[in-house]
Amino acid sequence: MGIRSTVPDSGLVAVLMEDGGPGMLAVPVGARDGLLLSAPEWSSGPSWAPFLSACVDAFGSTVLHVVLDVDADGGMCASAALDTDTPAQSTAVPCTPSDALVLARALGVPILATSALLRIRGLDLGEEALQRRLRQWRRVLDGIVAEDASSL
């Protein structure tokens, strides 16, 4: 995961890369969460995440993972999956996507994305058309860097 700025004054996104795959997903985050997620040391993590985990533990459950999804209108949503008495099921507790990312990092649990989210919002970096565009962008960027270096 990496935090990147979008167009000036419009916010930050957490860029998630598929584990072992070509997929990429951008999740909007606020400034506070962006700072937390980009910090190299997690010692300054949010106080609410361990508190939430302790509350969940007190009720005999645990956070298994977080899930990023889309709602009926195509907006991004998320939930934290808690284990239940039935091993084949889990209970989904709704939360914001940025809270899901912060919670996953604080607790060291996996971040999952639904196929619906990846279909609507995902970006497959292995796709040939996208690979061509990335090569074009790289040539443009290399040209810009070379111009800047020659002007020094």
How many angstroms does the end-to-end distance come to? Answer: 34 Å
Mean pLDDT: 78
Count of separate structural domains:
2
Main sheet record: 4 strands, antiparallel
Could you please say which CATH topology of the largest domain applies here?
Bifunctional nuclease domain
Can you list the strand order of the major beta sheet? Answer: 1-2-3-8
Tell me the number of strands: 8
Name given to the CATH homologous superfamily of the largest domain? Bifunctional nuclease domain
> How many DSSP helices?
5
CATH C-level name of the largest domain: Alpha Beta
Tell me the structural class.
alpha+beta
CA-atom Rg in angstroms: 19 Å
Give the overall silhouette. Answer: globular
User: In what range is the share of β-strand residues?
Assistant: 25-35%
Helix content: 25-40%
Description:
The chain has five helices and eight strands. With 152 residues, the chain is of the alpha+beta class. The chain is globular. The chain has helices spanning 31-38, 48-58, 97-107, 115-121, 128-150; strands at residues 2-5, 12-17, 23-29, 63-70, 76-83, 90-95, 111-113, 123-124. The chain has a four-stranded antiparallel sheet. Strands 6-5-4-7 form a four-stranded mixed sheet. A hairpin with a 5-residue loop joins strand 2 (12-17) and strand 3. Helix 1 runs parallel beside helix 3. The protein folds into two domains: 2-121, Bifunctional nuclease domain (Roll), CATH 3.10.690; 125-152.
